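[agent] plan:
  1. take the single chain provided in the ticket
  2. run structure prediction with default settings
  3. attach structure tokens to the ticket
  4. add a short note for the reviewer (M.T.)
[agent] executing step 1
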Amino acid sequence: MLILPKIRGFICTTAHPAGCHQVVAEQIAYVKAQAPIVGPKNVLVIGASTGYGLASRIAATFGAGAKTIGVFYEKAADDKRTASAGWYNTAAFEQMAHADGLYAKSINGDAFSNAIKAQVAALIKRDLGQVDLIVYSLASPRRVHPETEQLFSSVLKPIGATYHSKTVDVFRGEVNDIDISPATQEEIDHTEAVMGGEDWQLWIDYLKAQNLLAEGVTTVAYSYVGPELTHDIYKAGTIGHAKDHLRTTAVNITDSLKDVHGLAMISVNKALVTQASAAIPVVPLYISLLYKLMKAQGTHEGCIEQIYRLYKEHLYSGQPLYLDSDGQIRLDDLEMHADIQAQIESLWPQVTTENLLTSTDIEGYRDEFYRLFGFNTAGVDYSQDIDANVKIASIEN
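[agent] step 2 finished; step 3 output follows
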């Protein structure tokens, strides 16, 4: 099969197995080149196949030598379609982990469901005994509640008033004004149900009830705050409301883990090109400006650099955690540097379709987007036929 990128809206409907393999290999090579992480031994990553979740699994495995179980919801290839990028990422990750003699197993299914929680618990009990780190990195737009079976769908909307700003059509290279109507109360509630902390709490409660949490267990969930420029659509919008619930959940989980001296943390990470961030209006234009400035300063980081730093400098540093006033780890410190944000605030009103290429790093954004799906990767010949049917070693089909 000759596999080329097919863009539909803010997603790519194809993925390239060799390209995804190369992207994963690059992240593994980065971690191997760093100082070892003295930290987790048995790790569960919920949402482990792309972005920060994938980086969390790579850093734990190849940085700390940890055994990892990854949970995700991805599609294998069939006669008409390639597999999803997360499927190919995981296949590559497992292949390279196993080649190094490292434990790595994966479970594919709806992480919100009780059935997958039970399946994961059984695997932990059989192979690991207990876990000492649980990374919660789900970024799904929908959730079916495991008890009521109600379907919740999240929305990206402001709360209270219409939001007016500008955004970019990444592939057409067009800057346009945008107006987004405020969310209804039902939409606010649905977004909290999907992107808040309820499912994270359910996972921890379930694993604790099964006696699968090690003494001193740590669990971390990922979040984003962003600059004042995007607050109306993000921090002060429906997603921000859900993240407020996530923060409250971290406090509740920590309280529930007192008997095992456990800790629940939230890490606020940098804005990056991910499948989730690509769907948020305004954010791709902001990221394009951010990338240009941070690359010029030499402070730009991707997912793997961020997560390695999270493990090495924060979770397993042996020093007190750096927390903001809300008790969150701030890995977005370089993004939120006053100089960077002042420049973005100055440049934002000046960006137009005509100067987009020179005033932003829109080309870098596009390149990173394609790389999410295994395209635009050095060393891969995309003119060659390739077998799209790639197996994940630990998953039985």
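[agent] step 4 note for reviewer: The first strand starts at residue 7 and ends at 8.
[agent] ticket updated
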